[in-house]
Amino acid sequence: MECCLSQGELIRLDGEKNGVVLHCTSGTIWLTCGDGQDYLLSVGKSFALAARQAAVAEALQTAECTVVKPSSDRTTQPRPAIRLAAC
Fold first, then answer.
1. Averaged pLDDT, groups of 10, the chain, 87 residues long
2. What superfamily does domain 2-70 belong to in CATH?
3. Where are the domains of the chain?
4. Which of helix, strand or coil describes residue 78?
Protein backbone atom coordinates (compact mmCIF):
# COMPACT_ATOMS: atom_id res chain seq x y z
CA MET A 1 0.00 0.00 0.00
CA GLU A 2 1.31 3.46 -0.89
CA CYS A 3 0.44 6.55 1.14
CA CYS A 4 0.91 10.26 0.55
CA LEU A 5 0.64 12.27 3.77
CA SER A 6 0.30 16.02 4.15
CA GLN A 7 2.21 17.75 6.93
CA GLY A 8 0.59 16.82 10.26
CA GLU A 9 -1.50 14.00 8.80
CA LEU A 10 -1.64 10.81 10.89
CA ILE A 11 -2.06 7.16 10.00
CA ARG A 12 -2.55 4.18 12.29
CA LEU A 13 -0.60 1.04 11.45
CA ASP A 14 -1.49 -2.48 12.52
CA GLY A 15 1.13 -5.26 12.51
CA GLU A 16 -1.61 -7.80 11.79
CA LYS A 17 -0.75 -11.50 11.95
CA ASN A 18 2.78 -11.34 10.50
CA GLY A 19 3.88 -7.73 11.01
CA VAL A 20 4.35 -4.96 8.44
CA VAL A 21 7.19 -2.73 7.27
CA LEU A 22 6.80 1.03 6.79
CA HIS A 23 9.21 2.45 4.17
CA CYS A 24 9.67 6.24 3.90
CA THR A 25 10.12 7.23 0.24
CA SER A 26 10.01 11.02 0.68
CA GLY A 27 9.74 13.54 3.50
CA THR A 28 10.07 12.76 7.21
CA ILE A 29 7.76 10.58 9.30
CA TRP A 30 7.51 10.45 13.10
CA LEU A 31 6.41 7.10 14.49
CA THR A 32 5.49 5.80 17.95
CA CYS A 33 4.52 2.23 18.73
CA GLY A 34 4.01 2.15 22.49
CA ASP A 35 7.50 0.95 23.40
CA GLY A 36 8.39 4.22 25.14
CA GLN A 37 10.47 5.44 22.19
CA ASP A 38 9.78 7.73 19.24
CA TYR A 39 11.29 7.14 15.82
CA LEU A 40 12.04 9.37 12.82
CA LEU A 41 12.03 7.90 9.36
CA SER A 42 13.72 9.88 6.63
CA VAL A 43 13.98 9.00 2.94
CA GLY A 44 15.15 5.42 2.48
CA LYS A 45 14.59 4.37 6.10
CA SER A 46 12.20 1.63 7.20
CA PHE A 47 10.58 0.48 10.40
CA ALA A 48 9.33 -3.07 10.99
CA LEU A 49 6.27 -3.53 13.19
CA ALA A 50 6.01 -6.90 14.88
CA ALA A 51 2.95 -9.09 14.57
CA ARG A 52 -0.06 -7.57 16.33
CA GLN A 53 1.91 -4.41 17.21
CA ALA A 54 0.17 -1.09 16.54
CA ALA A 55 1.75 2.28 15.77
CA VAL A 56 0.85 5.85 14.88
CA ALA A 57 2.82 7.69 12.21
CA GLU A 58 2.70 11.43 11.46
CA ALA A 59 4.16 13.33 8.52
CA LEU A 60 6.45 16.08 9.86
CA GLN A 61 6.45 17.46 6.33
CA THR A 62 4.70 16.20 3.20
CA ALA A 63 5.78 12.56 2.98
CA GLU A 64 5.27 9.44 0.94
CA CYS A 65 5.57 5.91 2.28
CA THR A 66 4.75 2.31 1.54
CA VAL A 67 3.43 -0.30 3.93
CA VAL A 68 4.31 -3.87 2.98
CA LYS A 69 4.41 -7.33 4.47
CA PRO A 70 7.87 -8.25 5.79
CA SER A 71 10.20 -10.10 3.46
CA SER A 72 10.87 -13.75 4.23
CA ASP A 73 14.41 -13.16 2.94
CA ARG A 74 16.42 -12.48 6.11
CA THR A 75 19.20 -10.80 4.10
CA THR A 76 17.03 -7.78 3.33
CA GLN A 77 15.93 -6.73 6.81
CA PRO A 78 14.70 -3.13 7.18
CA ARG A 79 17.26 -0.59 8.30
CA PRO A 80 16.40 0.84 11.70
CA ALA A 81 14.97 4.34 11.99
CA ILE A 82 16.59 7.07 14.05
CA ARG A 83 15.49 6.57 17.64
CA LEU A 84 14.76 9.60 19.81
CA ALA A 85 15.50 9.37 23.51
CA ALA A 86 14.14 11.58 26.26
CA CYS A 87 16.56 14.14 27.67
1. 93 91 95 91 94 94 92 52 47
2. Jelly Rolls (2.60.120.10)
3. 2-70
4. coil
